[in-house]
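User: I'm new to structure prediction. If I give you an amino acid sequence, what do you actually give back? Let's try with this one:
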Amino acid sequence: MKYFFICLLCVLAGQASFAQQDSLLTLLEKEQDTTVSLLPKRMMFTQSLLWGRKGLMRVTGLSPLNEKNRTRELKTRRGMLILHQILGYATLGGMIGQGIVGQRLYKGNFDLLPAHKALATGVSISYFATASLSLFAPPPMLKRDKERNSSIKWHKRLAFLHMAGMITTIALADKASDSRYKPYHRAAAFTAFGAFATSMIVMTF
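Assistant: Good question. You get back a string of structure tokens that encode the predicted 3D arrangement of the chain. For your 205 residues, that looks like this:
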């Protein structure tokens, strides 16, 4: 009888130990799931670089990954995207002005060259500032744009096109006076403007 109680105690102790380990593992899994769920499964490289689990904001301790900081980050994201939209419209207006001046410049009105260069500088600054606000904004909690033809998807696709056009336009700016490069500079500028304007339209409507 004595040995029976000893064996029974050992069994009960073992079960209690396994139960404790099981509950501990469950707790750790829940904590891990909570940590992971604070971030979307997929992020842009620029977002991951700053806001990923091992991003600069995490490893430096400026914004540890927790619910409180994620709430702040989402507010920051909202503010950055609102500013992204405002600067986008300002950039579009600058592009229109630059295009008008550029057309007159192509017709031989070289007195407008300083104005064209000033507009080009302003548009370049506002364009890349607008892009940076989107690229480096904190990520959303979850990715919601699963539809292949959603407005957000088209906005992102067009971003590749107008950024390529913008970089090409800037690269050829100093050679635009050469007749060999003028058509390419002009084509790149129109491509950048067309893609940028369309990307703004699809998000607005």
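You can read the tokens as a compact description of the fold. Here is one thing that stands out. The chain has two domains: 2-37, 79-204.
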